[in-house]
Amino acid sequence: MKTDPDIEPETSWHSMPVQEVFQHLQTSENGLDSSQARQRLDSFGPNKLPRARKQGPFKRFLLQFHNVLIYVLLAATIVTALLQQWVDSAVIFAVCLVNALIGFIQEGKAEKSMESLQGMLAPVATVLRDGQKKTVPAEELVPGDVVVLSSGDKVPADLRLFQARDLQIEEAALTGESVPVGKDIYEADPEAGLGDRSCMAFSGTMVAYGQGAGVVAATGAHTQIGRISAMLAQVQTLTTPLLKKITRFGHFLTAAILVTALATFAFGILVRQLMPSEMFMAAVGLAVSAIPAGLPAIMTITLAIGVQRMARRNAIIRKLPALETLGAVTTICSDKTGTLTKNQMTVQSVQVSEDLYLITGTGYNPMGEFRLQDQNIDPLQHSLLAETLRAVLLCNEAHIYYQENEGVYRLEGASTEGALVAAAMKAGLDQKQENADRPRIDAIPFSSDKKFMATLHDYHQDGGRRIILKGAPERVLERCSHQANSNGQKELDPDFWHNSGETIASRGQRLLAVAFKDVPGDKKGLDEEDTSEGFTLLGLFGIIDPPREEAVKAAAKLIGRCVSVRDCQSAGINVKMITGDHALTAVSIADELGIGDGRTFLAGKDLEKMSDEELEKKVPGVDVYARTSPEHKLRLVQALQAGGNIVAMTGDGVNDAPALKRADVGVAMGKGGTEAAREASDVVLADDNFASIANAVEEGRTIYDNLKKAILFILPTNGGQALVVMASIVLGIGLLGEGGEYTLPISPPQILWINMIIAVTLALALAFEPPEGNVMSRPPRPPDEPLISGFLIWRVASVSVLLVIGTLWHYQYMLSGGASHELASTTAINTLVVGQVFYLINSRFIHEPAWSIRGFLGSRAVLISIAVLAVLQIGFTYLPFMQYIFQTEPVCLESWIRIVLFGIIVFLAVELEKAFFRSRTGD
Ligand code: ATP
């Protein structure tokens, strides 16, 4: 058994001939076998870069105090301590501590969830193991592995290339050079710099074009990128534009609160002639209770929960601002294959000469019959059909194998190609045998731009060679002069093929044509010119790919078409299908999905001729784009954006990257997509499914709603607390001693207590709110919707005033009934708290009514937080040591009834307000 190779870190792989590299790494161009790879993984370790060291927990905890709002609280702690107001000082400090603790714990959780997302996006690599192409996690690569590269791949380790076909690699990650550099397989000068080592592909760089294969020379920290930046920061910080706005708003609010506190302080001393020390405490109480200290933590928690919820629904967020943008999306442009359809391609018809053959069976299981005019036939007896099937089998990169343990046939490669392999296998052709009999000399790979591929084979016994060309019918037909028939060949009849293509396409089948050209035996390789003309058409394939049922439903939900009555909602989002397929195929599938009007489409070639202005005018009326190339997507995004749309665009190939970057939300495919597309995107779909985009939009709207709800709840409650202090001083409510000592109806420590317990209980609950019933039936949020709307100001003011009236009224009522100041004040505090509890239930729905069983009992988080609050508040009122600290007294049942009645009044008043706004907006 071979032992592991001994690798010097400084080996100059780039100046070594390929065979020597193989020897050194004890491998060959067929790669390693699984047991060798496993053994090497043990000795060389996983192929990953060491992570940047994360901030230690202590530092993270300290950072929680780094916030203007908290600074004010800390200053108040110190000043009150200096004034020997120990209870106040301790309570204010407790507020800071509790907030920091919540922030610390939640941030930790949020970071974990971001990390697990990173794990879900871990890159993979195509390697040769046991002589077969396999997809493995890039982390499992070891020196000596053979890696196959194709366009859009991220190079997973440092490779010494030994195969390169038009290979171009963008090395910006390593050299900063963003123009792709050509690669080859020849040794470079030993002294060559990184950018000149053209036979090397370096880890972290991107394949921009072409194909290649190389042997892994270095992994993990030993790669060039590993050496340059041994530490890569991986964890994203949780922030979005809205969060930044809120932080800025927080600064403004702090300033405003400080000014108000100062003004109240001055008013108390100058107008009411109160004692400065008492007034100072009152001003501190006012400032502290007005500051929504818990708001930043709650925003972060809401986002973290949203990220997790989306991941559970298969939408993995790469860039956090997308969380908010998703809620404002007005147009979704989606690929067809795999996203809207199942990507289970099956050849159903083959037109060869005048005969249209139908093929039975589904998926990649190579069992099925060939039928001609309703009769089963033996395809190998029909020589032209057999020749056509052989051609698509040879000009093919996919293969189908039987997975013994699962008892199913699996496809390695593209689904369109897999369908062709399955069809040829149904006819009894053996791919291995065919490839051995007619070995491939060279190939031009398929690309979505060219829409064809070509291979060169040692085809004939006499040494003659043959080029096989397969691709979109228009592309193939324009290169053909003849067509094959049973007597050999005759001149091409383009109209016949055109019509037969349309018949097949209008049944929703993807079209693919195949042709050949015989060339002399000394032809060594293929270039563009070899594929430009002189081909003989063999046949035309019709491949079905049924729409996904979930996509049909999701599209219906978004655009408001009815699949079932229950699904008939309209989120007011336009759905557009962008496909490389034939227009009739596209329109037919779009119609099944409910997209478009079943007729209108725009073809790529017409789109190309339009000016930007013309396109901008055209796009609102067209939902199906056919025969497009990835470049068209960029123009479509731009045209839609110019019309004021917020666009989500899907993509999977390397050429989709510019459109994905330009779109407001770039959506890449996690399963079928390239690494290049993923890196350019904001969201990755783990299941490549259109329905997951619709879900992501729903979650995006929910997150935005929940952020708004948190603000709508927290600001009025803080406002209410602060206003109680202010109104008492201004209106002269409270106890006035003979020496000018003034006792507020609710003392500073008491107001701080309320502030703290509301922050840890009620306010947190809203982060867990499920989507509102109508979340997908309203139009998208205007992207420029201001955070501080007139509605918000109104709500803050009205609820604050309501809470103050109830609280101060109850205080006065108790006093006038002969109660002590302590009892009146305990009653007033409970009135304020219960008012806030009821307002929390109002806040569960921004516009919808909350008076329903769902409104009261529908959220576990809300019920738990109310229960915790009740326990704390009962302790506050009835426990002797709390009574000692906070100067409280037990409240009697009668007062509780009044307190709850007040809560109900708050609830009803806000519900009436919502009903009023609903009637005005006609919701
Ligand atoms: P969609 O938008 O539906 O996801 P697409 O834009 O990816 O599809 P392409 O894969 O670019 O579409 O295919 C465009 C056309 O190219 C197909 O209709 C088919 O005729 C042809 N084609 C697809 N795959 C191959 C292939 N492997 N070899 C040759 N021709 C192909």
Q: Could you explain how this protein is built, in words?
A:
By secondary structure, this protein is of the alpha+beta class. It folds into 4 domains: 13-51 and 115-234, Calcium-transporting ATPase, cytoplasmic transduction domain A (Distorted Sandwich); 241-312 and 697-921, Calcium-transporting ATPase, transmembrane domain, CATH 1.20.1110; 326-341 and 549-687, 3-Layer(aba) Sandwich (Rossmann fold), CATH 3.40.50.1000; 346-544, 3-Layer(aba) Sandwich (Calcium-transporting ATPase, cytoplasmic domain N), CATH 3.40.1110.10. 47% of the residues lie in helices and 17% in strands. It has 32 helices and 30 strands. Strands 10, 11, 12, 13, 16, 17, 18, 19, 20, 21 and 22 form an 11-stranded mixed sheet that branches. The protein has an 8-stranded mixed sheet with strand order 8-28-27-26-9-23-25-24, sandwiched between helices. β29 and β30 (742-743) form a beta hairpin. It is elongated and about 120 Å long. The model is unreliable at 230-236 and 562-569 (pLDDT under 50). It binds adenosine-5'-triphosphate.
Comma- or semicolon-separated keywords:
923 residues, alpha+beta, Calcium-transporting ATPase, cytoplasmic transduction domain A, Calcium-transporting ATPase, transmembrane domain, Rossmann fold, 4 domains, eleven-stranded mixed sheet, 30 strands, elongated, binds adenosine-5'-triphosphate, translocase, P_typ_ATPase_HD_dom, ATPase, P-type (Transporting), HAD superfamily, subfamily IC, cell membrane
